[in-house]
């Protein structure tokens, strides 16, 4: 009984965290980024339209956006796909007022299996603790019990510095905003 109540409280907390992020994103700025495999670099863009124009030519399989409010990184969205488009992992990290990750909402979509999984994590003391995992059929959206055994999701990052693109959204974000785009190895 206590475990269910703790899980329910965590789910409510996560819903509030992500709702707050969505409301504050309107007031802030963003850095859009992608991995350019052909040049072995990460590129950041100040303009969403310029970023979107680069996705196809660079065949970017990893891309995302960092949202800021009042100069503070508020949320990080990251999408990873495979070359065939068979699967995608969409992550949305939320940060607390001290700048640490506090939650992750992950959606995994696997087209050949007609399956999606939504996972919610609380991040505390550098550890990601899964709170919930719900499966759905992609075509219908109906809840299902079907999990996909062959797919291994990317690890959950608990620190912003662990991401290879972290300079673009950290120390070099002002360069991205002033120049319009910046690439780093």
Description:
This protein is α+β, with helices and mostly antiparallel strands and 185 residues long. It has one domain (2-184). It is built from four helices and ten strands; from the N terminus they run αββαβββββββααβ. It has a ten-stranded antiparallel beta sheet, with helices on both faces. A hairpin with a 2-residue loop joins β7 and β8. Mean pLDDT is 86; it is low at 1-28.
> What is the makeup of the main sheet?
10 strands, antiparallel
Q: Structural class of the helices, strands and pairings?
A: alpha+beta
Total helical elements: 4
Could you give the count of β-strands?
A: 10
Helix content: 10-25%
Shape: globular
Q: Regions with pLDDT < 50 over 5+ consecutive residues?
A: 1-28
Pattern of helices and strands: HEEHEEEEEEEHHE
End-to-end Cα distance, whole Å, is 50 Å
CA radius of gyration: 17 Å
Beta-strand residue percentage: 35-45%
Q: pLDDT average, as an integer?
A: 86
Strand order of the largest sheet: 9-8-7-6-5-4-3-1-2-10
The domain tally reads: 1
Task: Write a brief structural summary.
The protein is of the alpha+beta class and 185 residues long. The chain has 4 helices and 10 strands; from the N terminus they run αββαβββββββααβ. Helix content is 23%, strand content 41%.
